[in-house]
Amino acid sequence: MTLALFRPPAASSMAPRIDLCFDMLLLATALVTLGLFATIFYFVIKYRDGSSADRTPPSGGTWKLEAIWTVIPTLVFLGFFAWAAKLYVEIAVPPPDAAPIYVVGKQWMWKIQHPEGVSEIDALHVPVGQPVVLTMTSEDVIHDFFVPAFRVKKDVLPGTYTHLWFRPTVPGTFHFYCSQFCGTAHSSMRGFVEVMTPRDYEAWLAGNAAPRTVVQAGADLFRTQQCSACHAPGGRGPRLESLYGSTVALADGRTARADEAYLRDALLKPEKDLVAGFPPLMPTYQGRLSEMDVMELIVYLKTLRGAR
Length: 308
Ligand SMILES: [Cu+2]
What we know:
Blueprint: H1 15-46, H2 63-92, E1 99-106, E2 109-113, E3 119-121, E4 123-127, E5 132-138, E6 143-147, E7 152-156, E8 162-166, E9 172-178, E10 190-196, H3 198-207, H4 214-224, H5 228-231, E11 247-249, E12 255-257, H6 260-268, H7 291-303
Parallel strand pairs: 1-5, 4-10
Antiparallel strand pairs: 1-2, 2-3, 5-8, 6-7, 6-9, 9-10, 11-12
């Protein structure tokens, strides 16, 4: 389609579907605009000054005509709303088999961490055909991760996690950008997604042999920060096995779901959600752990299974 000349290549599973919805909406609005202007020009010429057109007022209205021009456009545009809402939900919910990759934005760079332990800056290597979900946070201000060729973007916020998923369909190199103005060097906060064949990706991972995986890095932090001193059997703090995804009873009677945001708050703002039955002894790790440290600890905590 000629419109493809005016936009980046469509390199993810969602891209052609979003393009189709956009093109149809453009076509529909173009037809409405065309119809409006055709009518304007027709009447401008017909009733121009000095023309002999009949100017007697019409004798009555027709409700049928009004109903048609109200109901048909309403249905057409509600149809677009439903179509776009369906796409939006699909973009918002990562598929269960999406491979996790961790992203930290800061003025003015992107730090990217693969679960295998390989990390990169302003570059993201992914295998073609594999859904990938980015778990993202910011060390300072609001950023936004935007891959035009994948037609996806998501704000990257300090103090919490956001997720962005995509399935690349074409091997190649595609720009990504920060698309929230985040300070003087905002425009240089960008990089490239390298979409590789699965074989090349494996070779790339192997060639960048990391000393330890993200889970191992989290386990090391768990030990060096002495988390186990309180969270071991018989310790003064709550047990952490199988905590992730469970419902936690809090001291003030509320309950909380132990998701990533909960675990993050437990580490950095422990006074926020005190766990029922335990004294408020947990110190804050604010300033002692980097954003990547916090992510590694959470990934490690997710792997802890067993009875609590
Ligand atoms: Cu930014």
